[in-house]
């Protein structure tokens, strides 16, 4: 098999690098071509994605598309949609797109159509969700379930927790939802301290069902439950369900596999909240809304699969990231939602992006000499404005950012609170404008600012942003947004020629934690422990005894 050319050896790469030697600022770009405000917009479903405030021209975009063409992004995309094993290090298909395929679709893995199984699990989830929502599913003592606690970590936590927050306005308000992930006992303690075990359902979410944090928390949750229910082991069946690919381990833990909602090894953890992992969300918003969300995902899947390069939103966003990260030297990417409900959106994207594209060897195992995934960070925009935006505006770093906002607020807000929405969005538009166009020294002087302050009050501008607008944040729109980012991450991984679907780096930490733990609890010798960590362990044990 012939090796893929190194990215940096491709003529298309070098053409981009050469092109970057003629930079133009955003004031100049808009003056020369005001039409870019309309032209640099891509629409998909309910999303209007404006990328006019980027440091690119038609030529930049053409060169980026050339790079996508020669790196065969669409070829890999098609292989993913066909169910080929593009996760090469784990020899697995990458088929989160099958989780939201319509009932009559045919998608094969190893010659078997997986779509009927996907819908079988969705139907089982729907029936269970309705039982919990209606009060038909009762706990061991006959009381209805009022509290749902999801125990999981990484993809088995961030997705449902993020989506629950995002769609809070659509949730059954009479139910309480909590998400426990941290093995720090305080997490579970705070989650259950005011709950009645008789009314509490635990959802243990773990693809592998071996993740130490989740199994430890689930074991402690079971003890808490049994303490509250006179130790009657039979209670577990009514208060514990599992979401996993590993029926054997679920049974070992003591959960009846009849109470297990299955998914498959071709669903990556960080791509899994639209699988059984979304059960807590489905209970919260109901099966119909969950299906609307899946339809939103599917809409963007189809767009990614079929739209031409110029109008392909994930491709465009992926390419812009390549331009900044690989050519202009940006190290990070800010995601700044102007929506309180999206407070966990960026944290979710951190796993999606950084666990996928935090790689430094290519698909052939060669070290890469180009930047791969950026540091993704951010919090809801208005709060960020009063914290770290100063650095984006006037610091020394290039930080491309996504600004996300909605035209209409959701939820039963009073008229007074609804009216605040324009102010929220005014902030989004103002920030995009200020970041892009800044304020020149002449403009500052014209305001009568004393000369010694002019430099301090001048804004260079040219801080690129994408503005993603939609009518409102509803289940379908959330699905559209997540699929958009999933495929953007895919595009970048394809260009960088890395495996975006494994996470070996995380595995090492897991193994080492297991090895070190006995030293903390019993002082046991850990063979081969390095001097620094051994000293830390000794200090910890001393402090622990105080
Ligand atoms: O963080 C590593 C990881 O393997 C993620 O990819 C995954 O989402 C998370 O751990 C949880 O894994 P599991 O669902 O198997 O408990």
Describe the structure.
With 546 residues, the chain is α/β, with parallel strands linked by helices. The protein contains 23 helices and 13 strands. The protein has a six-stranded mixed β-sheet, sandwiched between helices. The protein has a five-stranded parallel β-sheet with strand order 6-5-7-8-9, sandwiched between helices. β5, α7 and β6 form a beta-alpha-beta unit. The radius of gyration is 25 Å and the shape is globular. Bound molecules: 6-O-phosphono-beta-D-fructofuranose. The site of 6-O-phosphono-beta-D-fructofuranose has 14 residues, from loops. The site of 6-O-phosphono-beta-D-fructofuranose (F6P) has 14 residues, from loops.
Q: What is the compact description of this entry?
A:
By secondary structure, the protein is α/β, with parallel strands linked by helices. The chain is 49% helix and 10% strand.
